[in-house]
Amino acid sequence: MSTTFATAESCTGGLLGVLLTDRPGASRYYLGGVIAYQNRIKQTLLGVQTITLKAYGAVSAETALEMASGVRKKLRADIGISITGIAGPSGGTKKKPVGLVYIALANVKKAQCKRFLFSGNRLQIRTQAAKKALAWFKTTA
Question: Rounded to an integer, what distance in angstroms lies between the CA atom of residue 26 and that of residue 32?
Fold first, then answer.
């Protein structure tokens, strides 16, 4: 049996799911995904804790880790992949600029997160994030 995985996307709005399902036979290993654009969805569907969102914000390593673990559990996947960030053109701050993205991978034993700072317009940032998540996942699966 092959390893199964699920996705939780915020700023990419499903682009990672598109990249994954572009490959024939993806249904053998890709269970599905959650587009959790609003914090309420991150909390209710993925189990991101209110305290995490208040302390660190939606765009943080802590939130990305909880999203990845939450989607893995919710969809009963071997691996959960999450993406959260600021695609712009607005919404950035000095501390969290446009292009800041956190990508997390979680399995039953551990969860890990990477921070990225992408540049370009909204679509370019979202595309770079989805492609980076896919590339990272391929090296760990």
Answer: 10
Question: Which pLDDT belongs to residue 87?
Answer: 97
Single out the residue of 8, 28, 5, 9 nearest to residue 87, CA to CA.
9
What's the pLDDT tens digit per position in 54-92? Answer: 999 999 999 999 999 999 999 999 999 999 999 999 999
Length of the chain: 141
55 CB-contact burial (10 Å; exposed 0-12 / middle 13-18 / buried 19+): exposed
Structure token pair of residue 102 = 């956190």
Residues 6+ apart with CB under 8 A from 57: 63, 96
> Which pair of tokens denotes residue 37?
């654009």
pLDDT of residue 46: 98
Q: Which ranges of the chain have pLDDT less than 70?
A: 1, 141
